[in-house]
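re: ur msg from earlier - yeah i can do the 2-amino-3-ketobutyric acid complex, just paste it... oh wait u already did. ok heres what im feeding in:
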Amino acid sequence: MKNILITGAAGQIGSELTVALRHRYGDSNVIACGHKTKPDATLLESGPFASLDIRDFSALATIVEKQKIDTIFHLAGILSAVAEKNPQMAWDINMTGLTNVLETARTCGCAVFFPSSIGAFGPSTPPDNTPQLTIQRPQSIYGITKLTGELLCDYYFQKFGVDTRGLRFPGLISSETKPGGGTTDYAVEIFYAAVKCEKYSCFLKRGTRLDMMYMRDALRATISLMEADPARLTSRNAFNVTAMSFAPEDLFAEIKKIIPNFTMTYEVDPLRQAIADSWPNKMDDSEAARQWGWQPEYDLPAMTREMISTLSRRMENDGGK
Ligand code: AKB
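and the outut:
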């Protein structure tokens, strides 16, 4: 990787991945692209930024050709809950975006990273220790775009030799940029309420167990997979990766160990609950461990401690806001 392009760079993963890749590969060698979401100052000041609608094929191809890009991290996309409210838009952005990236990669010789998700599974998938290769009949439009994306990435590798690689991310928990409309967002929102000593109303019901991961682990997983020796990879795309699995009440109990006065109620959102109910409880990520050495560093207590200390410090610096 010498010249890198990141689409969706202002989003939850992109804003932190851009900074991590700039540290590793040099500020000027990592071009951040975004469309609607306003990038924050760190992103704009630490290296090049281009405004790009990922549905615009020629704009994408021009940047890739002019900047001699060799690797594209394609993070632009619509998350599950927002997608379900506007399926046509979600299909357009998620699929037109990915086909534009793959076609550009094919003609310009780039490697591609594609983030799939636990959303690529469905209610008929085995919910516990979900294998990497298993039944996938997702019922949300988000899941359908993720599963199609996994297959399309495999197709471009097998048919055209494009070096596509990808992970199935669980819910991602981070303290920098908030996620924009996912089903697992409660696991981020809850921390903002807790550090402000506000009551939190959870939109998923008790007992809804889902895979989760702290952003630092997600960044490590992404970079490790892209740097992995291709000779060790027997699969390329759709690696299950997870770090912890919990239900809302488990996270609440962990936060209460540090903030004993914190309170939480439940006000279930039927749309997001139905999506969550169709996703696995816990994936088996042993293939990622075996093929490229994946190992999470943050479990539930470690992630909770770091989220609370980071957000509390920021709140103090911002004068309690
Ligand atoms: C979402 O909830 O939509 C995402 C995901 C698990 O893919 N966080």
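cool cool. The chain has two domains: 4-171+214-240, 173-211+243-279+298-317. ping me if u need the other ligands too
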